[in-house]
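Entry 14. Structure prediction run on the chain below.
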Amino acid sequence: MGSESRHSSAASSGLRISALGAAINILLCAAKVTAGIYGSSRALVADGLHSLSDLATDAVVALGLYYGNQPYDANHPYGHKKIETLAELVTGGLLIAFAVWMVASSVKALGQPSLAAPSTLALAIAAVSIAAKEWLFRATHRLGRKLRSGALVANAWHHRSDALTSVVTLAAIALARLHPSLVILDPLASIGVSVLVGKVGVDIARAAFHGIIDTAPEPHVVERIWDVSIEQEGVLGLHKVRARYLGGQIIADLHIKVDPRISVLAGHRIASAVEAAICSELGNVYDVTVHVEPSVSDDSPPGETGGN
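Output returned:
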C-alpha cells in the first residue's frame, strides 16, 4: 500500500471514530442537560455541557485529521501534518476554558440559599454517561496510538475526562439523595472535576505547543537514531544528529562520516542504508535526510545535536 493510500486510510479511520464520538456526545449532552434540569442536578447540567465541549473538539480533531493528512504540494513541501498539531492545541485550549467556566458556575451555585436533591433520573443518566464515554475513550485511544495521531489521543483523553466528570457527578448525586445536608456535594463535585479537566487541557496544549515550535523528541529517540546509524557498514562516525516531530511522526537529519576514498555511489548507498535503518528502528518516520562527509576528524558525542 502506498504512502498516500495509508494516509487516506488513517484519515478515514480517524474521521469515523470522531463522527461516532460526535453522535454519542450529542445524545449525552441532550440527555444530561435535560435530566439535570428536571432532576435538580447542577453537576449533571455542567457535565452535559462538558459533553458539548467534547462535540466541539470532535469537530476540531476531524478537521485536523482531514487536512493534516493531505499530501504535500508546492507550497507545503513537508505536507500538512502541523494542522493536526494545531488541532491538539485548540483541543487543549477548549479543555482549559471549559474548566474555568465549570469552576465559576459551581461557585455561583454554592452561593444559592437552597438546593434541591437530585432525582433518580439524574443518577441513571450519569451512570449511562460513564459507560458510554469510557468505551469511547478506549476505542479512540487505541486507534490514536495505532495511527500515531496526537490529535486522536488528545481527544480520547477528553472523552476520559468526561467519563471521570460523570463518575464524580454520579457519586455526588448518590450522596445528595441520602441526606439534605449533602446536597452541597453536587456543585462541589463540579469544582473538583474542573481541576482535573484543566490539568488534562494544560498537558495536551503544552505537548502541542512543543510540536509547533519544533522541540526535539525525547533524548532516547535521538540516541536510537545515533545507535542504529553508527552500526551501519561503512559509517565511520556521525554528528549533527537532529530530530523533530511533524504531527505524530519524526523528521530526522544527520551527517555521517565515510572513508574519503570511496566513490560517490558507494557513499550514496551507505546513506540509503542509514535512512532505511532509522525508518525501520523508529517506525513513525516522516522523512530522513543523511548528509555524507569524508572522515577527517574525531566523532562528536551523541549529545551533539546542532551546529553548522
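The first helix runs from residue 3 to 38.
Filed with the rest of this week's runs.
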